[in-house]
Design a protein that fits this description.
The protein has a four-stranded antiparallel beta sheet with strand order 2-3-1-4. The chain is built from three helices and six strands, in the order E-H-E-E-H-H-E-E-E. It is of the alpha+beta class. The chain is flat and about 50 Å long.
Length: 129
């Protein structure tokens, strides 16, 4: 039985955060993975502090990281609370322990350190705290 990967920050923050979760999913298991991921994502979308998420699929069939989820939260603290909810834990266990799936999840929490926007000069600006 796979455990739900830990994505928690060492100290929950009140600032906005991005959770990026890269999944190794065999190509032939993609159609099994998607509905289970959707179930899990819909639970998270109902939680306070959830801003939005996008699931990306590699356009290269033999890519190691077939799917990458990028989710934004109003704060790390709100993500922590959502991750602790039994409904989400049960859904994550169904995804990770489905006998038809052989996946690995690699979640982590990120903060923005550079924000690059289109401009005439094309320069990047560090984000200041």
């Amino acid at each position: 039985m796979n455990e739900v990967p830990i994505t928690r920050t060492e100290t929950p923050v009140d600032e906005p955060i991005t959770m990026i979760n890269a999944f190794t999913v065999p190509v032939e298991e993609s159609e099994t993975f998607l509905p289970l991921w959707m179930e899990n994502a819909e639970i998270m979308a109902r939680q306070p502090g959830f801003v939005g998420a996008r699931l990306h699929r590699s356009m290269i069939d033999d890519a190691e990281l077939r799917f990458v989820n990028v989710a934004h939260w109003e704060s790390g603290r709100q993500l922590e609370e959502a991750l602790g909810r039994p409904e989400w834990q049960e859904s994550a266990q169904r995804l990770l322990n489905d006998p038809g799936l052989h996946i690995t999840a690699r979640p982590s929490i990120y903060e923005v350190i550079v924000d690059l926007q289109p401009s005439h000069g094309g320069s990047a600006a560090p984000v200041t705290s």
